[in-house]
């Protein structure tokens, strides 16, 4: 379970998140929607600890992410995600492009790499700020099938 408790975030003098709170149960899928500039991506980045926040707390399965003693790399299991990501690159049809830099890929290929990376993570948390531009039912089915076929972590 993820608990977001009274998160506030500032960029300089501008407050972009104001006392945001919610909880998401394991396996629950939520959508964060709102107009451009309303803080959707900032909230997701904050939950993933890609952005610092000024007040509040985020608790993932009972572990406070704002506690300096929390070992974030261990929670993220980066090495395992990278190995799974390499396997999933083949699943999204990009094995021939595994050694290319993002600038050498088309926009659609970059999105498929991002999908493979997201699918490589454990199911504790997966977030996306938008769906790929040319999202199709085929890709939706393939991604959800891949997502749910991954082993769960306890």
Oligomeric description of these chains: single chain
> Could you spell the SSE succession in H and E letters?
EEHEEHHHH
Radius of gyration: 17 Å
User: Which residues form runs of ≥5 with pLDDT under 50?
Assistant: 144-154
- Mean pLDDT, to the nearest integer, reads 76
Number of strands: 4
> Structural class, from helix and strand content?
alpha+beta
Work out the helicity level: 25-40%
**Rough shape?**
globular
User: Tell me about the biggest sheet?
Assistant: 4 strands, antiparallel
Number of helices: 5
Straight-line distance between termini: 11 Å
Residue fraction in strands: 15-25%
The neighbouring-strand order within the major sheet is 2-1-3-4
Summarize the structure in short:
The protein has 154 residues and is an alpha+beta fold.
Entry keywords:
154 residues, 19% strand, four-stranded antiparallel sheet, alpha+beta
Task: Kindly describe this structure.
The structure is a single chain. This protein is α+β, with helices and mostly antiparallel strands and 154 residues long. 35% of the residues lie in helices and 19% in strands. The chain has five helices and four strands. It has a four-stranded antiparallel β-sheet with strand order 2-1-3-4, with helices on one face. β3 (55-60) and β4 (63-64) form a beta hairpin. α3 packs across α4. The chain is globular. Mean pLDDT is 76; it is low at 144-154.
Topology record:
Elements: E1 2-11, E2 14-24, H1 40-47, E3 55-60, E4 63-64, H2 72-76, H3 78-91, H4 107-120, H5 137-149
Antiparallel strand pairs: 1-2, 1-3, 3-4
Helix pairs in contact: 3-4
């Amino acid at each position: 379970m993820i608990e977001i408790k009274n998160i506030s975030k500032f960029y300089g003098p501008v407050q972009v998140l104001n006392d945001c709170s919610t909880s998401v149960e394991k396996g629950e899928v939520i959508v964060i929607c709102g107009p451009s500039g309303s803080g959707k991506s900032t909230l997701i980045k904050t939950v993933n600890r890609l952005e610092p926040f000024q007040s509040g707390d985020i608790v993932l399965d009972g572990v406070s992410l704002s506690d300096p003693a929390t070992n974030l790399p261990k929670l993220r299991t980066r090495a395992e995600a990278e190995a799974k990501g390499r396997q999933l690159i083949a699943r999204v049809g990009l094995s021939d492009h595994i050694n290319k830099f993002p600038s050498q890929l088309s926009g659609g290929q970059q999105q498929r790499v991002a999908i493979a990376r997201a699918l490589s993570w454990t199911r504790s948390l997966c977030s996306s700020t938008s769906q790929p531009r040319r999202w199709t039912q085929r890709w939706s089915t393939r991604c959800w099938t891949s997502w749910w076929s991954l082993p769960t972590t306890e």
